[in-house]
Amino acid sequence: MVIPVPSYVTDYQPGSGPRRAPRSWLHSDAPRLSLNGDWKFRLSPTARVDEAAAAPDFDDRDWDTLPVPSHWVLHGDGKYGQPAYTNVQYPFPIDPPHVPDENPTGDHRRTFTLPDWDVETIVLRFDGVESIFKVWLNGTEVGVGKGSRLATEFDVTGLVRPGENVIMVRVHQWSSMSYLEDQDQWWLPGIFRDVTLLGRPRGGLEDVWLRTAYDHETGSGTVTPELVAHPTAFPVTIEIPELGIGHIYRSIEDLEPIRLPQVEPWSAERPRRYSATVRSTGEQVEVQLGFRTVRIEGERLLVNGHQVIFHGVNRHETHPERGRVFDEDHARADLITMKRHNVNAIRTSHYPPHPRVLELADELGFWVIDECDLETHGFGTLGWQGNPSDDPAWREAYLDRVVRTVERDKNRPSVIIWSLGNESGSGANLAAMAQWIRSRDPERPVHYEGDYTGSYTDVYSRMYPSLVEMASILSDSGEIMGCGPAEAQRVRRLPYLLCEYVHAMGNGPGAIADYEAFLDVSPRYHGGFVWEWRDHGLLTKASDGTPYYGYGGDFGEVVHDGNFVMDGLVLPNDQPSPGLAEVAAVSQPLLFRRDGSTLIIKSRYHSADLAGLRLRGLLEIDGEPAVDTELAVPDLAPGGEVAVELPEKLITADVSGEAWLTVLAELAEPTPWAEAGHVVARGQWPVSARVAPKPIPVRAAESVPATDTVELGPAVFDATSGTLTSLHGVPVAGPRLELFRGPTDNDRSSSRGSYELGAPEETRGEGVKGPSSAERWRRRGLDRLVHRVLAVTASDTGLTTRVRVSAANSGLFVDVDQLWTVTDGELSLRVELTPSQGWDCTWPRVGVRFDLPADCEYADWFGTGPLESYPDSAVAARVGRFGGSVDELNVVYSRPQETGHRAELRDLAIGTGEAVRLRVATLPDQAGHRPGFTLTRHTPQDLDRAEHPYQLPSNDAIYLYVDHAVHGLGSRSCGIDVLPRHALWPGAHTFTLTFPTP
Ligand code: GAL
């Protein structure tokens, strides 16, 4: 018998059966039974499966066991298929609403005992099933649920029976709805959120919405209750004990707002919540209230009368082992990490998260854009032909999704904007969603980036515009993408935000600070949301059992988008990346400026003053603390500016050393997200006049060495190559010119234009389409330089080497002169680099490499740190003394790439404590600039070749790179290239190192 594919798999209906009206996610005392736990499981390769297993007496003893919630592809070691990653591409033919016959279908079956509940109705709730499912209870079909990250409730009152019940849930990986769920993430089928049986009491509260408002002029608050309840539920009491409120309502008609003369408002900075209890005759519900009013006034988005500025991130639900299965501790830890890095906003890209996430946002304090579960990006490939967003057949499905989003999350004070979805083109169905939101919740603005002309949304939102476009949008005239003149005028009247900007893929993003600067250009700009919060790597194993974080292509996918899913500020192992430190530094809520002995503090808080903070002034000389003093905390209203005098002792320093003043704003008391002492903002300035470098006399040696080796002070050289063989008794090879770096994901990308091809930033903004930087570097052979010694000469006090460096089949070269000198027993090296004519690509770096023994594993340095920094990601770097092991100095990006550069090195000791084995110091040039360093186990060529960290060779050496300059990072993997001012163009370089006695 041929079993047909069930019609619900490919119809347009948003679901079927006794689906209940969407309602708020509530904490109720009504009885509930969690159906999470072990279920019997059977996977079929298609949707053509008979329904015999739905029968209560079906024998499922030979089925496997699978936990619920889960994604079956993340269990069974490949037995149930594999996860698959695509960004825009649909992993099936674009033939809507059809899907292939190859449609993994998972049957989940279990029994449960109905508790002895005295209730009116019984409801079966699913909080998230990907992609669609059909449910049977005791052999009878219940209905079909769709909308992967949305809740479905079925009324099963007539189907449950006392005692044991049998439930079967059939989940199909692909369905018509997959066309609406083309988000850039893993495809992970399964019942991945909770399944619960709910007893609905007589006289219960079907839905509760306590809409709150705050009047910032009077300080008063309002609670406007909206209830869905049967008349027998009344009287209903609403209590807010902290405010002494106890209101009794006799009927629905009687639901008057509660007016409160004085309340404390809720904001992301002061997430003040009040517990409210709503009690009917049959049920009690707890709601955490936050008083706030969202309003757009002119071009500004205000909460409680004050403009909101987003220092936000895009947050997907992702966990390296659980996928999208919620783990509250993990989610809380992530939100705490956000708070600790000055992130104040979350866009729930690109679907509503587990409802607890929004409660955590209420509790810890974030502005949230809550986004509907919708993306049809793959239709872009077809020029948006057939896009569901403008096809009436899909209208009901679109509306169903937005209703379920808003109804579920409407009580959350953190949610201040509703978003229709992501990258779904444009069309009438999106406009209809917006219209519905306006009728249901007129207070919260509607967001959708794809509405380029602002025809149905309330805020103007863009992703990844260039800086030139930013300037144009924020000016009063000029073209705006996708807009005619009238439309450009319209969007210029709306609050402007970046729902996505700077792409945190691999090492990067660069230029965060350049975007931040637009906050000073126009109040219309409300900041943005970095793409994205964390890498989506899934923990897997190499063939030899080595664990690693997999990305697209690691699971045998037919089509995939590689490591584009590893684009977060947090690495898969939860480690914050240096990019996150840069976000924290750029986003700090207080900005410090110094003008002589005056410190000017500018507050960027929305609603917090400085209570709860303490200010510290720190004077360090040569990186050692000299003065550490508490400064008086001035009164400073949110958004205000104040000047304070710095104590004399902080700004006068002994000029014989290098003195830096640091001002720190720290938490004075612990908060729910950080300990007392946590630094929220910092400013740093040099105090001493710059000391002019003491020139080192360099004497060019003239005679050819007569022996095989040359000794010069603490150094021994090979006379033929003129390179070191040992230094202070440590075997050392080098120096050797290096111009290459392990290309970053941004270096490898050609997805956007490049400035390298000669486009001036000012005129083009986007650069010119062309090959990636890595490609250009390879064409010029930077990854495979070869060396030819032109001359080695020596004297008693010096050794001079000239080397020509170039690549196979290239006429371009760099001449490198190394002038070694011993003066008063101290060894110095001057490196002079002279490129040939004709170089036409940037250089990733310009410096020299020293090969050290493998136990040179620890560095202490005076320079910038603590983390790596690059020309366009250096706000977080500060001058000081830092230390770390070689493994701590380098970031394990999921795809190996450049890491570990620390600019402006003064002095570096390699080895630990007593056992310092080598020291390298630098001299500043006339401009005060010094080289930076990288200490690593891997060469750029090693990094370039490996796809995953476990593929890196275990070298028997440590490499020290001393780079006079490095190329910026940019954000070209999805955004702008390294700006011309942060690019490293070929040129002559001279720098000087000394090698003090360890
Ligand atoms: C955006 C998209 C995101 C993500 C990002 C690149 O266009 O909205 O979901 O794909 O690009 O990582």
UniProtKB/TrEMBL annotation:
GO cellular component: beta-galactosidase complex
Organism: Microlunatus parietis
EC class: hydrolase
Name of the protein in its database record: Beta-galactosidase
InterPro entries referenced in this protein's UniProt entry, alphabetically: B-gal_small/dom_5, Bact_Beta-galactosidase, Beta-gal/glucu_dom_sf, Gal_mutarotase_sf_dom, Galactose-bd-like_sf, GH, GH-type_carb-bd, Glyco_hydro_2
Family: Belongs to the glycosyl hydrolase 2 family.
A GO MF label: beta-galactosidase activity
GO biological process: lactose catabolic process
Annotated Pfam families: Bgal_small_N, Glyco_hydro_2_C, Glyco_hydro_2_N, LacZ_4
E.C. code: 3.2.1.23
Disordered: annotated span: 1-25, 735-775
Keyword DNA-binding attached: no
Catalytic activity: Hydrolysis of terminal non-reducing beta-D-galactose residues in beta-D-galactosides
Family matches, as PROSITE patterns: GLYCOSYL_HYDROL_F2_1, GLYCOSYL_HYDROL_F2_2
Record-annotated Beta galactosidase small chain/ domain positions: 711-996
SUPFAM superfamilies cross-referenced by the UniProt entry: (Trans)glycosidases, beta-Galactosidase/glucuronidase domain, Galactose mutarotase-like, Galactose-binding domain-like
Key words of the record: Glycosidase, Hydrolase
